[in-house]
Amino acid sequence: xxxxDPQRVGTEDTRLIVLRGSGASGKSSVASxxxxxxxxxxxxxxxxxxxxxxxxx
Length: 57
Fold this sequence. Notes:
The chain is an alpha+beta fold and 57 residues long. The chain has one helix spanning 27-38, and strands at residues 15-21, 42-48.
Protein backbone atom coordinates (compact mmCIF):
# COMPACT_ATOMS: atom_id res chain seq x y z
CA UNK A 1 0.00 0.00 0.00
CA UNK A 2 1.53 3.31 -1.04
CA UNK A 3 -1.05 5.85 -0.01
CA UNK A 4 -1.43 7.19 3.51
CA ASP A 5 -4.07 5.28 5.48
CA PRO A 6 -5.37 7.09 8.60
CA GLN A 7 -6.35 3.72 10.17
CA ARG A 8 -2.88 2.22 9.76
CA VAL A 9 -0.37 2.19 12.60
CA GLY A 10 3.31 1.30 12.25
CA THR A 11 5.25 0.50 9.11
CA GLU A 12 5.88 -2.52 6.90
CA ASP A 13 8.63 -3.52 9.36
CA THR A 14 6.48 -3.36 12.52
CA ARG A 15 6.14 -6.71 14.30
CA LEU A 16 3.23 -7.88 16.44
CA ILE A 17 4.11 -10.10 19.40
CA VAL A 18 1.43 -11.65 21.60
CA LEU A 19 2.43 -13.01 25.01
CA ARG A 20 0.04 -15.21 26.98
CA GLY A 21 0.41 -16.60 30.45
CA SER A 22 -0.93 -16.74 33.97
CA GLY A 23 -0.79 -13.73 36.23
CA ALA A 24 2.71 -12.99 37.58
CA SER A 25 4.30 -15.40 35.08
CA GLY A 26 6.71 -12.80 33.66
CA LYS A 27 4.89 -11.52 30.56
CA SER A 28 5.87 -7.90 31.22
CA SER A 29 9.49 -8.85 31.93
CA VAL A 30 9.69 -10.78 28.67
CA ALA A 31 8.08 -7.85 26.83
CA SER A 32 10.69 -5.47 28.28
CA UNK A 33 13.51 -7.79 27.20
CA UNK A 34 12.09 -8.08 23.69
CA UNK A 35 11.79 -4.31 23.44
CA UNK A 36 15.45 -3.93 24.52
CA UNK A 37 16.71 -6.48 22.00
CA UNK A 38 14.43 -5.76 19.04
CA UNK A 39 13.94 -1.99 19.34
CA UNK A 40 10.91 0.22 19.11
CA UNK A 41 9.35 -1.24 15.96
CA UNK A 42 7.15 -3.61 17.98
CA UNK A 43 3.60 -3.92 19.16
CA UNK A 44 3.53 -6.18 22.22
CA UNK A 45 0.23 -7.41 23.61
CA UNK A 46 0.21 -9.22 26.97
CA UNK A 47 -2.87 -11.36 27.54
CA UNK A 48 -3.48 -13.03 30.87
CA UNK A 49 -4.75 -16.59 30.78
CA UNK A 50 -7.97 -16.58 32.75
CA UNK A 51 -8.75 -19.90 34.37
CA UNK A 52 -12.27 -20.78 35.51
CA UNK A 53 -12.83 -20.80 39.25
CA UNK A 54 -12.57 -24.21 40.88
CA UNK A 55 -15.99 -25.60 41.72
CA UNK A 56 -15.68 -28.59 44.10
CA UNK A 57 -19.36 -29.57 43.72
